[in-house]
Amino acid sequence: MKSLQFESSITADALQRLMDAGSVQLLDVRTPGEFAAAHVPNARLVPLANLDPTAFLREASPDCGPIYVICQGGTRARKAIEKFHRAGFDHCVLVEGGTQAWIDAGLPLVRGSSKTLPLMRQVQLTVGAISAAGAALALLVDFRFAIIPLITGCGLVFAGLTGICGLALLLAKLPWNRAASSATVTCCNNKG
Fold first, then answer.
1. 141 vs 130: CA distance, rounded Å
2. Residues classed as catalytic
3. By C-alpha distance, which of 184, 175, 163, 192 is closest to 71?
4. Which of 28, 134, 153, 169 falls 20 to 30 Å from 107 in CA-CA distance?
């Protein structure tokens, strides 16, 4: 599938200035656990796996302008924008660098009690642990265990080439990543 070219993107700092000036419709497509741990104020959570652009647009505030889409680093936001594009809606703006760029810029953040790690860190920890265990087993028990780090390495190469990480999709379905956020979820940043 041809990847969408993003003509419309915004930096975290520029988005903060827009939010300070008025209403902004901000969609966060991370997992509920990631959102509960930390999110941009007034972001609306709809995890990428649950995103139905048609249903979202029916509920969206028509006077909020474009939909600004954010995730942890940008990959899931791009996929969400592609979903909106396929649904015939082309007024989405990618938040460059995602929530991590927002945090790095020192902008206001809503922090919850959840200590859920971002999904990519969960993937890194899981792949690292499996690979290290496989390598140790290959060295200490039987060389055939070398297939384990080979498989995990191939999975990472596939994810890097395609932008599709099967392990991330699987981890997103685990209970700690599906926990509901206790934070108030709103659509727009209404300041008068």
1. 15
2. 71
3. 163
4. 169
Task: Tell me which of 85, 115, 145 is where a domain ends.
Answer: 115
In a 3-state reduction of DSSP, which class is residue 40?
coil
Q: What is the tally of structural domains in the chain?
A: 2
- Adjacent-strand bridge partners of 39: 110
User: Are residues 83 and 171 both part of a single domain?
Assistant: no
Q: Residues of the chain with pLDDT > 90: what percent?
A: 51
pLDDT tens digit string along 17-42?
A: 999 998 889 999 998 888 888 899 99
Beta sheet of 44-45, edge-to-edge order: 9-10, 92-95, 67-70, 25-28, 44-45
CB 84 within 8 A of CB 67: yes
Q: Which residue has the tokens 């070219």?
A: 5
Dihedral over alpha carbons 94, 127, 156, 9 (to 10 degrees): 10
Q: Can you count the helices (H) and strands (E) in the chain?
A: 9, 7
Rg for the chain (alpha carbons), in Å? 19
The residues that bridge with 27 in the sheet, in sequence order, are 44, 69
Among 18, 81, 30, 55, CA closest to 185: 30
- Residue 154: which pLDDT band, with cuts at 50, 70 and 90? very high
- 128 is a domain residue: yes
